[in-house]
Amino acid sequence: MTRFSWFNATALTLGFAFLYMPMIILVIYSFNASKLVTVWAGFSTQWYGELLRNEEFLSAAWVTLKVAVMSSTIATVLGTMAAYVLVRAGRFSGRTLFSGMIYAPLVMPEVITGLSLLLLFIGIGLDRGVLTIVLAHTTFSMCYVSVVVSSRLVSFDKSLEEAALDLGCSPFEAFRLVTLPIIAPAVISGWLLAFTLSLDDLVIASFTTGPSATTLPIKIFSAVRLGVSPEINALSTIMIGIVTVGVITASLITKQAAVRQAREERMAERPA
Amino acid sequence: MNQPVFATWNDPDAKPLIQFRNVTKRFGDFTAIDDLTQDIFEKEFFALLGPSGCGKTTMMRMLAGFDMPSEGQIFIAGQDMARIPPNKRAVNMMFQSYALFPHLSVWDNIAFGLKREGKDKEAINARVEEMLRLTRLSKFAKRKPHQISGGQRQRVALARSLAKAPKLLLLDEPLGALDKKLRQDTQFELMDIQEKTGTTFVIVTHDQEEAMTVASRVAVMDEGRIIQVATPAQIYEAPNSVYVADFIGDVNIISGRAKPTGEKVAIQWAEGQPDILGTTTTKFDAGQEIHFAIRPEKVAISTEEPLDAANKLQGKVLDIAYLGNISTYHVELPTGHVIKAQTANTRRLSRRQITWEDPVWISFTDTAGVLLER
Ligand SMILES: Nc1ncnc2c1ncn2[C@@H]1O[C@H](COP(=O)(O)OP(=O)(O)OP(=O)(O)O)[C@@H](O)[C@H]1O
Ligand SMILES: [Mg+2]
């Protein structure tokens, strides 16, 4: 352990203040009794009540939730499949290229992803709405899922699958009965990650949405242009809450469950 | 005993269950199995013996269908296995690493293969219970693999591979982690299963004693090749090379030049020492390099000069290893060779006549050792 020093303490405080001050202020003001965002007039939860009566916000929330659940589910299926193939297929020609291409969208500017998807949807004549957002979110969150799942698969003992085959499983059964249950924590945390990514995406959603589908981030962004209201603070606080819970759960599941499982798996093997 | 000796491999009409035909397996440019041709017959208990990395597991993996030969063919029951996936082969393998399913209990691990067969519940239950009893795991049925000991895990792996009662069982070091008592019991269980069900076993082991006990034939391997295949007794008494003689059991090797003398072959092995006399059916030319291999238990040791021994040499005791039932004397000859001689300790704590530094005679008959070309 390094010794406590004033310098470290200050640096730490400043760093975290820089990161979290804006959010803390937002959360505090969401409980402000006054309609004026900048004037503190005592504690109240009235804006949360208002929020529940605001049809527009509620429908946006519903759209967001639908999009997030659908896209993260599809992304999890596709991402897991991609990870499995890339980790298991061994060395086929162009494998490096393929795995590189899976990760490229992670660093691609969102504006470009959004724009290219928009062009594609226009090109194939797809009406923009919930469906297009789901497709768009699936595309970009799938990479995250595949990164999470493949890092788990790399350490997965292949002989378990061979044992399943040996005992009469078809390759698909071996995957379903042996591989999937063992890598489940990684798959679940991939899903949670995709879910939170979809929940707070503004840029790609704005590019691919149509008049019929407004997600919460889009709604908030446009509402803010007319002035920040305490209602939006309340809404944002809720979203911060959901995202925080999602991210923390995801990382807890990956860390703890994966560590525990890796240990169990090691233990189940022959001691070296 | 007037039971016919089990020796299908000598029967020219017998159909082998497994045929390796010029099988080569390469990993990159490393050759793990080198042009191997070998038949294994039904109801055999075939043991693979060899140093680490010689290709034993690779042979098994090719039989199970996880690895494909780079060249050559493998037939099981007359069928070319090239296009048959592992799940379509009537073969079960016990993995060297166990490969137990960590998310399933001991019970479910053993039941796994049976459930895939679509057997009814009753039958599965009965079979799993039987396997648990056989491997003495009944108490641990509900535990997960990480909650049991190493030896118990090994038994789960064994039980899981036995459960489906396949025609061919591949066991990759099945008993290594068990204590001696349990190992011997399990060996007899395996032989019993083999006798009852007629299953063919191919088994990898590092334990020579085990190979000697259970195997109908032993294959000694080195660097991807089978050096000798024979019954345990033949391997022990008539190894075909210094490598095999040295690998199985304890042996003294003396190298020299051959000097055929009538029926026998004399070995000139050191200046100023009498030639060693041996008998062989192999033809040796005069002056050819020759190796004389003799087991320590076939070398007698005495303080007095033995009268009518075909071979006798003088030396002094360098070391004595007391092993309970036997003692091994390391005798140094004037030439620097150290010869091991073994005697059974038939009398309890008898006053040993021979101790360190004693001058002694070692002697052996002219049929006690084997003469080898390489
Ligand atoms: N997938 C692989 N890729 C590259 N080399 C391999 C592979 N599998 C095995 N080998 C090599 O092939 C050789 C034979 O391996 P194998 O596992 O058959 O040895 P083994 O006889 O079972 O040894 P042990 O007694 O240590 O289990 C070894 O040198 C090993 O390094
Ligand atoms: Mg091995």
Automatic annotation (TrEMBL), chain A:
Record's subcellular location: Cell membrane
Statement: the UniProt record of this protein carries the keyword Membrane: yes
CDD domains per UniProt: TM_PBP2
Record-level GO BP terms: transmembrane transport
SUPFAM superfamilies attached to this UniProt entry: MetI-like (SSF161098)
InterPro entries, sorted: Bact_Polyamine_Transport, MetI-like, MetI-like_sf
GO cellular component labels: plasma membrane
Transmembrane feature ranges: 12-31, 60-86, 98-124, 130-154, 174-194, 232-253
Alphabetized UniProt keyword annotations: Cell membrane, Membrane, Transmembrane, Transmembrane helix, Transport
Name of the protein this chain belongs to: Spermidine/putrescine ABC transporter permease
Organism per entry: Marivita geojedonensis
From TrEMBL, chain B:
Name the record gives this protein: Spermidine/putrescine import ATP-binding protein PotA
InterPro entries the UniProt entry points to: AAA+_ATPase, ABC_SmlMolc_Importer, ABC_transporter-like_ATP-bd, ABC_transporter-like_CS, Mo/tungstate-bd_C_term_dom, NA-bd_OB-fold, P-loop_NTPase, PotA-like
Self-association state and partner proteins as the record states: The complex is composed of two ATP-binding proteins (PotA), two transmembrane proteins (PotB and PotC) and a solute-binding protein (PotD).
Enzyme class: translocase
Molecular function per GO: ABC-type polyamine transporter activity; ATP binding; ATP hydrolysis activity
Domain ABC transporter per the UniProt entry, residue ranges: 18-248
The UniProt record lists the keyword Hydrolase: no
One CC-aspect GO term: ATP-binding cassette (ABC) transporter complex
Upper lineage: Bacteria, Pseudomonadati, Pseudomonadota, Alphaproteobacteria, Rhodobacterales
Family in the record: Belongs to the ABC transporter superfamily. Spermidine/putrescine importer (TC 3.A.1.11.1) family.
Domain of life of the native organism: Bacteria
Record Gene3D superfamilies: 2.40.50.100, Nucleic acid-binding proteins, P-loop containing nucleotide triphosphate hydrolases
GO terms (BP aspect): putrescine transport
Catalytic activity as recorded in UniProt: ATP + H2O + polyamine-[polyamine-binding protein]Side 1 = ADP + phosphate + polyamineSide 2 + [polyamine-binding protein]Side 1
Pfam families: ABC_tran, TOBE_2
